[in-house]
Amino acid sequence: MAHGFENDIQRILKLDVPIRNACKRKASSSSTFAFNALTPGKPANASVGLSKTPNKTPGKNKRATPSKTGGDRFIPIRNNKQMDVASFLITKENEPMDTNNAENQKAWSLSLNGYNIEEAKILHLGGKPLNAPEGCQSSLNVIYSHSTSPAPVNKTRYISSTPYSILDAPELRNDFYLNLFDWSSQNVLAVALQNSVYLWDATEGEITLLTKLKHEEDYICSLSWTKEGSYIAIGTSDGEVQLWDVDSQKHLRTMISHTARVGSLSWNDHILSSGSRSGHIHHHDVRVSEHHISTLTGHSEEVCGLKWSTDGRYLASGGNDNLVCIWPRVQEGSFGNSSQMVHCLSDHQGAVKALAWCPWQSYILASGGGTSDRHIRTWNVNSGSCINSLNTQSQISSLLFAPNHKELVSAHGYAHNNVVIWKYPTFTKVAELNGHEDRVLSLSLSPDYSTVATIAADETIRLWKCFELDPLEKKAKEKMAKSSCSVMYQSIR
User: Fold this and answer.
1) Using an 8 Å Cβ cutoff, are 337 and 295 in contact?
2) In whole angstroms, what is the distance from residue 300 CA to residue 489 CA?
3) pLDDT tens across 359-375, in order?
4) pTM for this entry
5) Strands lying side by side in the sheet with 240-245
6) Of 46, 193, 374, 465, which is least surrounded by CB within 10 A?
7) Please, which residues bridge with residue 166 across strands?
């Protein structure tokens, strides 16, 4: 019996011979059409064994039921709609779907399967994951009905729109081309007010007058701290460069080589570079008596921006001639004039005072143009190519990189008179700091990189705590709470 049953199964799968020992009933015309369509090589009106099966078992007047001992099987009766669905799925398998029959197909699917098959797909190319059909007990229900939790969204950190401290800076010279304050690594802020230099200890809050020029008509043009923060260089309107020991408040020397005011200064170890209104850049070796060791002559107008790269390989200079020049490191023992620059970048259409080197990519330089240009540009100084350019719609007076969050800060004059924080390198705007009533002349960053100091023509210095490394710390919270309650006003002198 078992052997005969296996043979019957094989014949059923082939569908080309009559089934023995099967339930014998008269097939409907629709059944004949459906099974004929499944038989390869047969015309639609050809007869097969199943379509000729009698509807009664010989010798009996009632419908056959499945045998308890095996051998007979029950074939359910299919209605006309079910057979139509089967025929449609076979004959239309490779044809494009007609959108006009969408409702009929849905009805057929509900009738045949008990649910809409489109709503039970495990894979779906768009939208949210679909829920399993109601009452489905499949173990896959957990897989395709589970909605994954959304990816965490990086929330923008809070940046206060008000400064935590404001310092009064009377008689500040409103000159775009000058560099009048700098923040040392020992947390001391130096500010030039007309012909005097004042020091503000940001830790203790103490203010000290460092020096005052002898002649009232003279004025301070530039300031620059050494890397250690113990010495400061001062450029004056009569072409002098003074060197001071801040700890002992002692004037060490005066270096004279320029014929016009010194508006920009930058240190590279023991080499001090100074830029003049004459367009010349002088290198001074402060260790020797003959301090003037080299002259760079790439600019035709005043040098108003001067920055050594963080690794000391390159010097960037910006001038009122709209040029950005890249110079190589000073060679030991080299003397005399030199104009062998690495690159001369001429994309800006206005004076370039704002220069900043990227601390984490030493070959990246950011530069900003004046009122006629108003663009921030970033450069690869190894190749001399412009990486990115952004029109800020406002005069750019100063730039600096903030290492804690890898952002770029720009100070602006006409027409916005504000400070903007940009995400680098995408230049997505992070925040705007408003409050100055006149153009912002310069920026400086605290030694812990958490605070930006801005100085403006409204004769105020404002301190903004924008780059806290860990704002969740208890001490940082207390400081921010105190600063948000009241703004401290203090005079710089």
Assistant:
1) yes
2) 42
3) 999 999 999 999 999 99
4) 0.66
5) 220-225, 231-236, 240-245, 250-256
6) 46
7) 462, 489
